[in-house]
Amino acid sequence: MPYVTVGQENSGNIDIYYEDHGSGQPIVLIHGFPLNGASWEKQIPMLLDAGYRVIYYDRRGFGRSSQPVSGYDYDTFTDDLKTLIETLGLRDIVLAGFSMGTGEVTRYLGAYGADRVAKAALFAPLAPYLLQTDDNPEGVPATVFEDIKQAIRDDRFAYQKDFIDNFYNVDVFGGTSRISEQAWQNSWIVAVGASALGTLQCVDAWCTDFRGDVSALSSVPLLVVQGTEDRILPIDNTGRRLPALIKGLQYHEVNGGPHNIGWTHPEVVNPLFLDFLTKQ
């Protein structure tokens, strides 16, 4: 199994697990909280069949990557991504992020520019700034995030059950072809296998201010797709704010779609993604 070392904690390496398949233009897929790189399962075959090289990895603290007690902030996450890109010698990349993974895409372009990046895609975006402040009234009140952190401290396993219910809007789609009981169970198993400390610290990362990075997204062709019924990153606080901030982006809403539209609505998301990739 391939790993790239991104740091060290005491006597051990901090290693990021990744998979690298196919050939052609490289697409780097960055997963959302609290899953892993394999959660792109409904997009990976489509991308490989279309002739792309597909690279996906597990964020530190999640999946098969190391679970250090620190580094759960977007500067570190983005440096991990940068190390992976440079280790593999990738250029002409498509960076695609889902949910929390959109933060790495946004911060990478803001910090390191588009020298290696050809296009970018954000599915259920985190940007521009999720936290409500005096100069960001469109954000979510800080008490919401404090309550989430307390719920994780009290019972991380129960919290993840509620989170994944809202991840897929199971009261609407549960038990249907959109999200089976077995697929839900797999998501919960992956979620509770993540670092307990990392799970908690990621909540603060969600409150990262990306407003200084957002302008860099206009340096490459950009696709943004989000479900109108997203309960994790409400669309009015996130995706609907971006067209006014980024010139020329391709923006699409999935009517009735929950947070994880890539799983529940691949018949909508995949053609949009593929069309975006193939356009010059």
UniProtKB/TrEMBL annotation:
<keyword id="KW-0378">Hydrolase</keyword>
<dbReference type="GO" id="GO:0016691">
    <property type="term" value="F:chloride peroxidase activity"/>
</dbReference>
<dbReference type="GO" id="GO:0016787">
    <property type="term" value="F:hydrolase activity"/>
</dbReference>
<dbReference type="InterPro" id="IPR000639">
    <property type="entry name" value="Epox_hydrolase-like"/>
</dbReference>
<protein>
    <submittedName>
        <fullName>Putative non-heme chloroperoxidase</fullName>
        <ecNumber>1.11.1.10</ecNumber>
    </submittedName>
</protein>
<dbReference type="InterPro" id="IPR000073">
    <property type="entry name" value="AB_hydrolase_1"/>
</dbReference>
<dbReference type="InterPro" id="IPR050266">
    <property type="entry name" value="AB_hydrolase_sf"/>
</dbReference>
<keyword id="KW-0575">Peroxidase</keyword>
<dbReference type="GO" id="GO:0016020">
    <property type="term" value="C:membrane"/>
</dbReference>
<dbReference type="InterPro" id="IPR029058">
    <property type="entry name" value="AB_hydrolase_fold"/>
</dbReference>
<feature type="domain" description="AB hydrolase-1">
    <location>
        <begin position="26"/>
        <end position="266"/>
    </location>
</feature>
<dbReference type="Pfam" id="PF00561">
    <property type="entry name" value="Abhydrolase_1"/>
</dbReference>
<comment type="similarity">
    <text>Belongs to the AB hydrolase superfamily. Bacterial non-heme haloperoxidase / perhydrolase family.</text>
</comment>
<keyword id="KW-0560">Oxidoreductase</keyword>
